[in-house]
Design a protein that fits this description.
75% helix; single chain; 8 helices; 182 residues; mainly alpha; 0% strand
Amino acid sequence: MTTAVSILPAQQLAVLNDAYRKAVARKRLKAALAVAVFLAVMVVAAVGAEVNLRTLFTYFGNFISYFDRILKLDDGTRVWTNFGEWFWGWQKWLKMLGETILISYVGTLIGAVFAFAFNFFAAENTSPSPWLRFTVRRLLEFARTVPGIVFALIFVIAFLVRLLVGGILLIVDAAFRLSRRR
């Protein structure tokens, strides 16, 4: 099967090439203006934030040396050369890691059970009354819009920093995030 490629006359081709060049020039101008506006906003933000470039470049070595410092132990050796020093309390840390995983699993599971119940109360065909359905839906909408850190702060103020706070936060977060109105 053969196909033919049509070749336009030179005059028509020149008009199309001119239109293409103008379109490319407009796009480049828009991009240049966007970059200029972005840089102007960055300068205004830097002035407002009191950014000092001299200080930034003077102490830039500290930023680079941070990555070197995190790979050194207290005795000055590298992390990978002294596993005994690196894993000095691994039994205690392993137990705490297990507790953390258990709390996250149980908190998410209990939250999923609450979410399952909330879904029935928020659904139109399974809710016992319209006012309960309305209340549960508004509660779920409110709870989904509040960031998790706000709930964390509320629970820390109420219960101090303990394992209970993490568990309750996971239960509440899972219950509200998993219950969706479709």
